Amino acid sequence: MHTYDFIDVEVQGGVRAGKTDAFKTCISIVTEKAKEGWELVQILPVINEKSGVGSLVHYTVILKK
């Protein structure tokens, strides 16, 4: 049986802020957690469904062990 961990990484500023480091933060989390025996399942972009535009709210890093 697997254990799962879900880690949200907030995106600061949105589209107008330009490039953010949120995805680099996801990569850092995956790298650090791999050292602890965790395996990446998926990095899921979570959008704001109510806005109708699909603006990115955060990434959810899904890991299993």
Question: Characteristics of this structure?
Answer:
three-stranded antiparallel beta sheet; 1 helix; 65 residues; 3 strands; alpha+beta; single chain
Could you explain how this protein is built, in words?
This protein is of the alpha+beta class and 65 residues long. 22% of the residues lie in helices and 38% in strands. It contains one helix and three strands, in the order E-H-E-E. It has a three-stranded antiparallel beta sheet with strand order 1-3-2, covered by helices on one side. Strand 2 and strand 3 form a beta hairpin. The longest helix is centred in the middle third of the chain and has 14 residues, at 22-35.
Beta fraction: 35-45%
Return the average pLDDT rounded to an integer. 87
Radius of gyration: 13 Å
Order of helices and strands: EHEE
The profile of the biggest β sheet is:
3 strands, antiparallel
DSSP helical segment count? 1
The unreliable regions are none
Q: Between the first and last Cα atoms, what is the distance in angstroms?
A: 9 Å
Class derived from helix and strand content: alpha+beta
Shape: flat
Oligomer: single chain
Helical coverage, percent range: 10-25%
Kindly report the spatial arrangement of strands forming the biggest sheet. Answer: 1-3-2
Q: Could you give the count of β-strands?
A: 3
